[in-house]
Amino acid sequence: MLKVKQLHGRKFRRQFSIDNYILDFYCPSERIAIELDGQAHFDTNQIEYDSERDEYLKSIGIKVLRFENKFIWEDTEGVILEFVNHFRT
Questions:
Q1: pTM to 2 decimals?
Q2: What mean pLDDT do residues 66-76 have?
Q3: Is 39 helix (H, G, I), strand (E, B) or coil?
Q4: Higher pLDDT, 40 or 35
Q5: Is 32 exposed, middle or buried (0-12, 13-18, 19+ CB in 10 A)?
Q6: 22: helix, coil or strand?
Q7: What is the separation of C-alpha 61 from the centre of its chain, rounded to a whole number of angstroms?
Q8: What span, in angstroms and rounded, lies between the C-alpha atoms of 26 and 28?
């Protein structure tokens, strides 16, 4: 649903690099990063790393939205609606 500007005409880039970080998906026009988190992201060290990373991205004007992988499959429409709710009109 993020391919070829299918989501309200917004372009998303997959595996997009910003400084030393690789974002799962990035929408340049909205300055939104979408991170899909698997089991590895629930380790204490990874949680701390993700928090520092998110703070850095926030400091340069990028909003980070995080979702557990399972929600992508269980409630795809709900996750997509969450993306859209963060778009500027």
A1: 0.80
A2: 83
A3: helix
A4: 35
A5: buried
A6: strand
A7: 14
A8: 6
**Pair of tokens at residue 11:** 């372009």
pLDDT exceeds cutoff 90 at 21: yes
Q: d(Cα 2, Cα 75) in Å, to the nearest integer?
A: 15
Predicted pLDDT of residue 33: 95
Residue 13 near residue 45 (C-beta atoms within 8 A) = no
- Averaged pLDDT, 43-58: 89
Tell me the sheet residues that pair with 16.
Answer: 23
DSSP for residue 2: -
Rg (CA), the chain: 13
32, 83 contact by CB (below 8 A): yes
